[in-house]
Amino acid sequence: MVKKSQRNASESRPRGKGPVIDLRGLTVDRGKVILDDINWTVLPGENWVVLGANGSGKTSLLSALTAYLTPSAGTISVCGEVYGESDWRALRKKIGLVSSAIHQKIEETQTALQVVMSGREAMINYWTRERHPDQSRAREILQRLECGQLEDRLWLYLSQGEKQRVLIGRAWMADLQVLILDEPCAGLDPVAREQFLIFLNRLKKDKTCPSLVLVTHHVEEIVSIFTHVLLLRNGRVLASGSIRDTLTSQNLSAAFGTPIRLSLRSGRYYLSIHPRKGLVA
Q: Which of 75, 122, 234, 267 has the fewest beta carbons under 10 Å from its own?
């Protein structure tokens, strides 16, 4: 039987602190149910992976979290503020998002420093008169992200990996409580991907780093900083909980609809696929 637990491990809850993200019965119906009764809680100090096949609901979940997709039922709470009862424009500043959609909207002539500064008001592109406090903070963030040398470089000339770091810096300019990385390794070559994942491990050592949520198809991208996993299938929660208990061959096989064997080597996850008879590779 597939393990299905939509509640986090209670022993990981820091005392006296409420959830960073709390979804209760989240449902999105547009003539077809896109998300169905999603319950998910992210507590301070936890780092989550959202994992599932294409069409499982990952993108819709992110759209609902960032208020670009209105729920049909249920509640969305971020840092104690409830969607529909608070100014979601302000709450968006607490949810940093690094995604390919943002990549594509940034003007090629923006410098890395301008891109980071645009995050203070959750803007796309920075055209206002540059203020010294913004510049100082943006430079500090770029240094923290190990790319201070990029501040004057145009977006056009940044590598894919450099763009990912700069977008993390953009998110960090706001009052960030959780940082969502939406398939951040897409488009990276194998070496750049490993460098980025190693960088994430170093980043999490920064005491000011918020909770991380990694959205991916690939278990190989789950590095040691991640503590919990949310498995989606057909818009529903298939399994949720600590990685140790939830990321299993059985659950992955159910999530992707084919027999999968999960292995752990040197602290990293790998899978092998065993297609059912009759399927053509």
A: 267
Cα–Cα distance list, 253 to 136, 213, 249 (Å): 49, 22, 6
Q: d(Cα 243, Cα 225) in Å, to the nearest integer?
A: 11
What tens digit of pLDDT does each residue of 32-58 get?
889 999 999 999 989 999 999 999 999
Predicted local distance difference test score (pLDDT) of residue 5: 44
| Chain position carrying tokens 């159910």 | 254
